[in-house]
Design a protein that fits this description.
The protein folds into 3 domains: 6-79, no CATH class; 88-297, Hypothetical protein af1432, CATH 1.10.3210; 328-378. A hairpin with a 2-residue loop joins strand 4 and strand 5. The protein has 16 helices and 11 strands. The longest helix is centred in the first third of the chain and has 27 residues, at 96-122. The chain has a 5-stranded antiparallel sheet. By secondary structure, it is of the alpha+beta class. The chain has helices at 6-11, 62-70, 88-93, 96-122, 128-138, 145-154, 162-181, 185-197, 207-210, 218-225, 227-238, 244-252, 273-288, 299-308, 310-313, 316-328; strands spanning 21-22, 29-32, 41-42, 46-48, 51-54, 75-79, 334-337, 342-347, 357-359, 364-366, 375-378. Helix 7 (162-181) crosses helix 13.
Length: 379
Amino acid sequence: MQIYLREYIKTLGGLDRFGITCFWETDLYTVAVAELKDGMMLGCNITMGDKVVIKKGTKVDSIMRKQLQAFKLLAVEVLEEEDFAETYYGKIKVSRAFKKFEQDYTANLMAYKVAVDSFIYKKVPFRLDDLLEIVKNLVPDTLMGRDLFAYLYLHMPSDDELIFAHGLNVALICRIFSRWLGLSPKETNDLCISGFLFDVGKYLIPADIIMKPTKLNRMEYDLVKTHVFHGWYLLDHYSKNVSQHVLNATLQHHEKTDGSGYPQGLKGSEIDPYARIMIILDTYEAMTSARPYRAAKCPYEVISILESNMLQHYDVQFTQLFARHIVDELIGCRVMLNDASTWEVIMNNSNDLSHPILKNEKDVLDLSKNRDLYITGII
């Protein structure tokens, strides 16, 4: 167990009291000497007087531990894995915040799975407050959208969790999107519940069809399409505490604004706004999440798909707002292009969000004016 003793050490008058000086850097990882493990790397110089006796960056071993104990040190700082990671996602993947998110995610995903199974097989109504508590646990007010999307991009549930993870992930994204929309608390709750339940009918479709890596045949596709009726019917009859918006989102989330969707071929404003939001978040989450048979798509690639289909399939206002916030939070990231060159995102093009303005050590590149080049990944 790591013990954080910075404040306690200060109450002792610092390490100088023991004749040892440890030059604290930024907020590193403070660990009790008794808890140091081989391979950890010291995050500060330790000196006696003017002489450095152990240099920052030295790896912990049995000899160093004996030295530190001889110096009567209570704790030292070590560098974390993220200090050595070179990429944006690399730093996040080894961070304590992401590791804690993964632990919390696993526990809350299980709670969601139990709620779904109880509803599908025993017709136990959803306890909406419990679902909303899951969202609050994983997306507290302090968690930024940029962090959540990175966490979801990096997290890979096990094969038997994938279907449930999709519903949970969409609900978490709903929490962030509700902030961007400026929704009221009640509207936010309805949107998050829609995220949890809009696809509930899919739990009645065989998993091997839902997760099929190749194109569905006509019979399989017709079977999958029935999930909107199954979900709507089950919620309407066995979980009457959900709002009409949630019911509509369940039935209508495959309707498209040009009328080419299903099951009713609704157009534009005929589609409930919560359903119009669901199809956007459903698409984005599914494409940016890894599957056993394919890697996660780059966010810029998915934004390009949303933009190119916006007038036919998606609500323009919701799509533009969602896409703009996604790319705004990627400013400052390093990206790789299809020619293997690497750049930094410095500005977005408001009319072409998937093709931002980039820079490297020598040049500035506007992707909207160089259509042969496009972003293939965030690094």
